Amino acid sequence: MLKAVSHSKNEDSKSVTVYYNNEAAVDWYKKYEHLDILYIIGVRIIAEVMESQVQVKQARILDVAAGTGLTGIEVTKLGFENIDALEPSEEMLKKLPRNVYKNIYKEALDPVKQSSIPNNSYDCLVSTGSVLEGHIEGAHFSEFVRILKPGGLIIFNVSDRYSDFRERLEDDLQALMEDGSLESVTKQRSVYFYNFEDANIYTIRTA
Predict the structure, then answer these.
(1) How many whole angstroms separate alpha carbon 95 and alpha carbon 92?
(2) Considering only Cβ atoms within 10 Å of each terminal Cβ, which end of the chain, N or C, has fewer?
(3) Residues 72, 85: Cα–Cα separation, whole Å
(4) Do residues 123 and 149 touch, judged by C-beta distance below 8 A?
(5) Residue 67 has pLDDT above 90, yes or no
(6) What is the rounded CA–CA span in Å between residue 78 and residue 71?
(7) Domains of the chain: which residue ranges?
(8) Phi, psi for 51 (deg, rounded to 5)
(9) How far apart are the first and last CA of the chain?
């Protein structure tokens, strides 16, 4: 049985990057990528939700915490070609399929420091299995708003396993709604990235 990656509330962007630069973590990641497609159906569902919301195939899309590119591959299969990746781990980047992504940002998101990505760059941000405690949290969403075009979309999933975190995240999203940064937050039930866990898929539109 594969050992799941641990997620601690005390992790910061540097320690998370160090973890994913570890070969053991990369080996674990690659093993479950190559299992039966039903095992990774959550990735395909995220891509299909994005397709239902993004009508223009030339839309600029950023795969956040892209890992080894599994989400980008599924998005490309649906006809989207203008995809960039953001991934801080050198080891993950070695596995990233260069034919899927036009631009690759090797950096971690920081809730108090802007990334190098210019304002209003993207139509949609997509992330699979990375919005969770110690990785991407509510404090990062102001940066998402900054790099999205007005009316841009953020699409991601959060497992039921992280229900306490999910409640706090929804409070943070509500605060961004109230300050006018977000226009809408919707969610639907689905399966997660692995282990057939149940999850929420969130579709957020910026103001």
Answers:
(1) 5
(2) N
(3) 8
(4) yes
(5) no
(6) 11
(7) 13-206
(8) -60, -35
(9) 44
